[in-house]
Structure formats: structure tokens, C-alpha cells
Amino acid sequence: MPLVAAGELVARAAAARTAVAAFNVITLEHVEAVVAGAEAADAPVILQVSENAVKFRRGRLLPLARAAAAAADHAAVPVALHLDHVRSDELLRQAADAGFSSVMYDAAHLPYAGNLAATRAAADRAHGQGLWVEAELGEVGGKAGQPPLDAHAAGARTDPAEARAFVADAGVDALAVAIGSTHAMTTRTAALDHDLLGRLAAALDVPLVLHGSSGVPDAGLRAAVAGGITKVNVGTALNVAMTEAVGGFLTAHPGAVDPRTYLAAAREAMTEAVTRIIDVLTTP
Q: Is residue 214 part of a domain?
């Protein structure tokens, strides 16, 4: 089926008091694995392309975006396309024409006033293109190889009162909240602040998004969904599955030179990871 709007999938999840999984993709194998995993789980899914992934693809947005759209056309479940962690105004400008229905504009590294001003301007531009807009308040650390923030550092957690004012003044459609997770975690040891999540859910009337979900244990993810998270971002978990599968295959087959052999193993491992994560999010 053709691409659907990410905002629509998030709204459906919110109405059903569940969450939609959003997976960051870098290669065609990522795209295929996410769609196959979502089909196995019989659940909608969001394909996310980050600004860093675009940089890896030599600054070109369209090749991966078109691959995602083509995969969605053949999918048996609804698939949306989301542009993630955008700071570049030029990349934001390209989003709608490239098939994206939503964007996460990332100014969370700035002080509150700077984050608000930059996000307000970006939201105005994005809404003018018909895009659904996610922002971040508080900072989920570990982006782009940066060290994680101390969980108690100033700005590391999202303040409910500040978040309510930010959403109203920035005019965004969803908010990524910092409640104890960290990007790029390869161990599942993050402890979420569920009390803070409850206060954020009570203070805000927009969908809440969890970043850094690869580091959160299953029980923590289920509790986050029960507590009001409606979009769950996953990236590192797929990369771990891919890397382990490639490494394992090449160790077992040291003479292998055909990339299709080890990429097939990687794609299958990522597919299984996608299905498992979606099942965790959708099973009480």
C-alpha cells in the first residue's frame, strides 16, 4: 500500500492506548527488515531516516526515501516515512517532496529559549509543507557518538511545566521526552523515570515519544507505553542485530566474499528483532 501519514499512525496508537514502533534505517536491508518484521507482527510501522543517515548516504536523501516508499508500496501493513533528528534547514526543506509525512526537528542541545525559537520557526515551515512535527525538550544523550548526559544533569530530564509551555509556544504535534533513556545504548540497562512520565502525560495533550529505546528492558518499554508513550524510536537494536549476524556468518564462513550471503543473515536477524520489539510494545 502507499505510504501513510506518521501522524495518523501515532493518533491511532494514542486512541488505542498503545504505541507505534519507529525504526531508524540506514541501508536497504534495514528497510526490508523493518517492513518484513512489521508484517510478521501484523502491525503498522514507521521507517525513520535520520540526518546522520543522510550524511552517511553522501548527503543524498532521495535514494533511501525512494527505497522506503517502494517497500511500503508492497507492504501488507501501513508504513509511514519520518525524517529524524533534523537540524539542517535545507534537509527540512526537502522532506515533503521526498515523501516524508513527518519530521523530528532537533534543537534540544540549545538552551530553552534557543530550542523554543528554533523549533517554532521550523514547525512553521514544516506545517506549511503539511508535515507533522515532533520536537524534543530535555536532552536524550548519546547522539552522534556524544557521551550520554548524567541522568541528573541540568536539562537531562523534561520538566512537565516547561514542557506544557514549550508545546503551546512551539506549536509542535508531538514531544520526545527525556525520562532516563540514552541513544546508542548496546546494553538494556536504562531505568526510566515512570513517575516523571506520568506527570508529563498529565501535563501534555500531545503524543509523547521515547527515544533511546534500544537500551530499555522489555518491562520498562511496556510500562512506558502503559504510562503514555505512543511512539517508540528504535535504532541501535537493529544495528546490533545486523553486526552480530554479519560477524557470526563471517566467522563461520571465513572464505565468504558474496555480500548477499552475510547481508541475508543480517536482514533476517533485524527482521526478528523488529517483530520481537513490536510484540513487546503491543502486548500488555
A: yes
Q: Is 126 exposed, middle or buried (0-12, 13-18, 19+ CB in 10 A)?
A: buried
pLDDT for 49-101, tens place per residue? 999 999 999 999 999 999 999 999 999 999 999 999 999 999 999 999 999 99
Residue 266 vs residues 27, 65, 113, 250, 279: alpha-carbon distances, Å: 11, 21, 43, 11, 20
pTM score of the predicted model: 0.93
* Contact of 167 with 208, CB cutoff 8 Å: no
Is 169 noted as a catalytic residue in this protein?
no
Confirm whether 1 is domain-assigned: no
Domains contained in the chain, number: 1
Asked whether the CA dihedral 64, 70, 76, 81 is positive or negative, the reply is positive
Distances (CA, A) of 100 to 5, 124, 209: 8, 16, 18
Q: Which entry of 42, 84, 258, 279 is annotated as an active-site residue? A: 84
The CATH number of residue 161's host domain is 3.20.20.70
